[in-house]
Amino acid sequence: MLLADNETTFDLLNNDAIAKTIVGLITEDSERAVTVGVHGDWGAGKSSVLEMIEASFADHDETLCIKFNAWRFQGLEDAKIALIEGVVTQLIEKRSLTTKAADAVKDVVKRIDWLKVARMGGGLAFTAMSGLPSPDHVGAVVGMVKGFFADPAKYADREQIDKVIEGAEGLLKEKESRRVPQEVEEFRKAFDELLNRAGLKQLVVLIDDLDRCLPEPAIETLEAMRLFVMMDRTAFVIAADEAMIEYSVRKHFPDLPDTTGPRDYARNYLEKLIQIPFRIPALGGVETHIYVTLLLVGARLGDEDAQFKVLVAVAREALRRPWDPTRFDNAAVQAALGARAKDVADDLVLTEQIVPLLASGTSGNPRQIKRFLNSLLLRKRTADARGFGAAVKLPVLAKLMLAERFIPTLFDEIGLASANDPYGRCKDLAVLEEGPKLDTVRSPAPLVAGGKEKKVAPPGPATVENPVLTQWQASDVIKAWAKLQPPLSDVDLRPYLFVTKDRKDYLAAASALGPLAAVVERLMGRRMVVSGMDAELRALAKPEASLVFDYVRRRILGAGDFSRPPAGIDGATILVRTQPHLQSALLDMLGTLPASSGPWIVKGWSEVITEDAERQRFQTLLERWSKATDNPALAASATAALRTKVKG
After folding, report:
1. Predicted model pTM
2. For the chain, N or C: smaller number of CB within 10 Å?
3. Superfamily, domain 30-72+202-280
4. Which domain of life is it from (predicted)?
């Protein structure tokens, strides 16, 4: 059971409301030209909205809806010509105009050929600013093509060259030199006549995947739309992420100032081209719950299942009030599915489990939601195929994959701990999943009136500060993840680490330390011991160096006392100095250390942290440490370091 990620007219997102609104806007006054933008991040459902719009016009005899995929034609030829020819070709084919209006077709096609021949000149100006080439320009093309005969194999075969020359000379005979505005106007008149011959009241052009194009073809497509075919009785609906189009504008016009007063030039350009913008909103929590439920149940039962159709109807009714979770709660789903509910019981439990974090982690993006679900289901299917059986349970795998996808540092810690535990467990998770427990103890003297027992923490050694746990407990996202069912602290996670090893093989790393174990032990020694290891550490392959650093880091963080440099910090420093790719991992470790650490964490990193991005991260850490009100020594040391950097 995998989920298709194609555009569809089967609406699970209630985007049909957007499609209907757009159709109503462009048909209420079919005489006027209009451009509509359907905006949203990649995967938001823009292409599906276009499919729904196209389906809405299927039975409109006096309206023709055609589709143009800008990305598909990118690189094949000039983007302006591609759009013009694509629109005209579909118009001719869908309305059988070759026989009904042969003369009008011939006129328009000749004008397109004129543009295509001109482009073969390679460098002839043909833009929205300079317009079409003159016959002199085309004559230059003909001369150039004839010159190719000196080495025809280098350019094209004889038949192709003959066709180019014949076409260009034919255009020279039939056309007179015209000024650019006149030539553009003639094309528009010919195209308008073609619409008349087609018996159309309105032409609707859907442009998809424009935001996937490189800046030049993206802008050329928009310019062609406005310059050549945007006229009365035409409507263009453009699906694109507006941020990507604005980026294309900035790349296309690099010399323009960033802003014009309070406005951005790129935004002004986009608003000039697109009159009516629609942005597809991200899915909220209730909408994500409905969407995931429909995806999983639909994949299990099939879109044509009668009970699934009932569930879809209930979902669409619930989407009328997406702020009210009671309209699509477990009782409503069970009632809609009836006897089929038992067939999808596991899917419904999975939905309840993953939706809270999935909604926030994907920012409500439908494609990202589908990708996560497909990855989860594929891994489970692979585990079953390999005979793992009950050793891999879908709820446990789902919870781990949520951490892997949205909290990768947490997943790394869990993976390393589980791989090195004899029972494959990450015991630290118990603190998050269960919370600290109080034991009942009896005092020889009454602790409260009436001699009742009082729950107090049993006496014991002082708690050693664990920076990893401290970091986990300080993160609301990690705490929210830990509350998801089921708890994992008592689960053997080694089968799950094997299933997810396409990302990182923690089990192989644990068993492969072998000869590197001696390196780790020496790096945990004193400075005198590690100072002579430079050559040996430089000889490590990157995967080996990363593995060694992981083990050294965990032993450093397990020290508990950071008032002084812990054992292993000198080794980690030398390892990173000889393996610069580990600078990011070092900064991650430094950021994990508690605010009670000694001033040592500020000093000695200038020769180790050399990359600009990591220096900026260290600067941010210094600023954070300089505000450590409960640790004056650390604050003073960090402040002094910041002043030194400013003077430097």
Report:
1. 0.63
2. C
3. P-loop containing nucleotide triphosphate hydrolases (3.40.50.300)
4. Bacteria
